[in-house]
Amino acid sequence: MNVLVCVKQIPDPNVPGKLDQTSHRLVREGVDLVLDPGDEHAVEAGMQLVEKLGGEVTVVSMGPPRALDAVRKALSMGATRGILVSDAALENSDTLSTARALAAAIKGQLFELIICGTESTDGYSGAVPGQIAELMGLPLLSFAKRIEVADGKVTIDRQTDDGFDVVESPLPALVTVTGGINEARYPSLRGIMQAKNKQVKQFTLEELGLAGQAGKDALTQEVVEVTPAEARKAGTVVEDKGEGGKRVADYLAELKVI
Amino acid sequence: MIWVYAETVDGVPRPIALELLTKARSLGEVAAVALGPGSARAAEQLAAHGAGKVMVHEDPAFRDLLAQPAVELLAALIEKHKPELILFGMTYEGRDIASRLSARLGTALIANATDLDRNGAGYSVISPVFGGSLLVTTVPRTSATPLVLVRPKAFAAEPGGNGKPEVEVLTNPVSSSKPAPRIVRREKEKAPGPRLEDAAVIVSGGRGLGSPENFAMLEELAAELGAAVGASRAVVDAGWKPYAMQIGQTGKTVKPTVYIAIGISGAMQHTVGMKGAKSIVAINKDPDAPIFKLADLGIVGDVHKVVPQLIEELRARKRK
């Protein structure tokens, strides 16, 4: 059972993000960069499968050279090797370019399953996994809160608005996982040391045969304006000095909901 | 012509389908595509919300298999009719179909839209970023039909249009050359009380409650108010509550009259789903919690003191 896990390095989601007003891109300078916490669950899901069934986890990412840190973090959780697609032309990529780059890097790898987070924590369009699945002709099993692999089949519990659906598909397939699927492990000290010596292959667009087909030469869309949203008017914030509950009740009465 | 991918369940349009049609008809001529058994029955209601034409296909594959049959059919229909734009709901179904379809067509997919406008011969799309603090305007740059994923409740559904659609019943064989994921069982995890989507009052809990047992307090409060109970992602990820109760980016978008956030810090992942509430009340012990920036009334205090007092107060006022 060989598993590929796609990961993304993002600005620390606990720090409020900023957009550069001129380039309309995420400001990355002066912000800590981390492995997307959603992707930690994808790595964990992959590790649990290979620990049970044998095989290896390979981590795949796209980003600037420093995205190597996010790949190393996943390696320190137990993944065997990494792949990083890095090319200046990929700056400012849209989701389809990202998917093309990742799919090209994945082609030629041996795998039965690809696992991704349902969406990145910074961009949250959730488009890349479905695009990779389509480009590679794979079934997409999305929003999994449970994965099971047996008899050449993958079965998931897929979140729905009012519960979940049990969905099954033959392998190979692509699964996206939600944060609720597992508790991601912390890398051990030994894991961190070992990760330093694990192999990470790096590719440019040209090496993947994608020159001109992804990144700045193949943008499908353009951000033309960024404006501050109308903020909600600041309300009243009071410290509870033993009357907090009554204060809320008064307010609800004012709004006529009681 | 703008197309709306109209999600239906057993012949009944989902609310998002009617929301999308309401917006689309303000921009131009609209056609809807509804797939799965019973979809023809949905045509009348889709027309009543602005679809001049409704294309339906009743094959059970659209209900039982994820995304792929819809992608195959839509790709063929787009090739034939070349619509200017297609709107999908940012839902489980809409996301899977639109993302696959964008890769198939090599076209723009613009996600998280909350508004749309005409822009010369094309369209521009507005989406919030960073928990809604900024709005970005995006324009498609492809010759192929652009796809837009619109957040639920971005538009209010209102009837309008002539109500007599041209219905095209499609019968193309549903291609099955590639293996597709199949839904083998559907499970419901229904929370008590009104549905989050419809409730006028929502009481919602986060990690600040301390433990899953403390949710009982919220349920008591909700019962007093006739409210629905929601939860933050932290709480759902921790397994305290089922996903069906999650409000936020990955959960439900709600627009109640009053939203009472209890022990919720207000991460943007959460606020995206609730900042459309008419009034927001927050109770949290951390005075710096971002939720207080949104709240019309914020109480900095211990939820275990404030909430029981609130419940008691509501009961006392009812007795009067």
Write the layout of secondary structure elements.
The complex is a heterodimer of chains A (258) and B (320).
Chain A: E1 3-7, E2 9-11, E3 33-35, H1 37-53, E4 57-62, H2 68-76, E5 81-85, H3 95-106, E6 113-117, H4 128-136, E7 140-150, E8 153-160, E9 163-170, E10 173-177, H5 189-195, E11 200-203, E12 221-228, E13 236-239, H6 244-254
Helix pairs in contact in A: 2-5, 3-4
Chain B: E1 2-5, E2 8-9, E3 12-13, H1 15-25, E4 30-35, H2 43-48, E5 53-57, H3 61-64, H4 68-81, E6 85-89, H5 92-105, E7 109-113, E8 115-119, E9 122-129, E10 134-140, E11 147-150, E12 166-169, E13 182-188, E14 201-205, H6 215-225, E15 228-231, H7 233-237, E16 258-262, H8 268-271, E17 279-284, H9 291-294, E18 297-300, H10 303-319
Helix pairs in contact in B: 4-5, 6-10
Quick structural summary:
The complex is a heterodimer of chains A (258) and B (320). Chain A is of the alpha/beta class. Helix content of chain A is 25%, strand content 29%.
Estimate the helix proportion of chain A, in percent.
25-40%
The amount of beta strand of chain A, in percent, is 25-35%
CATH superfamily of chain A: HUPs
Number of strands of chain A: 13
Kindly report the CATH topology of the largest domain in chain B. Rossmann fold
Task: Name the beta content range of chain B.
Answer: 25-35%
Q: What is the terminal separation of chain A in angstroms?
A: 58 Å
Which class best fits the helix and strand makeup of chain B?
alpha/beta
Look at the structure and give the CATH class of the largest domain in chain B. Answer: Alpha Beta
H/E order of the elements of chain A?
A: EEEHEHEHEHEEEEHEEEH
Strand numbers in spatial order across the main sheet of chain B: 7-11-6-1-4-5-12
Largest interface: A-B, 84 and 98 residues
Question: How helical, in percent, are the residues of chain B?
Answer: 25-40%
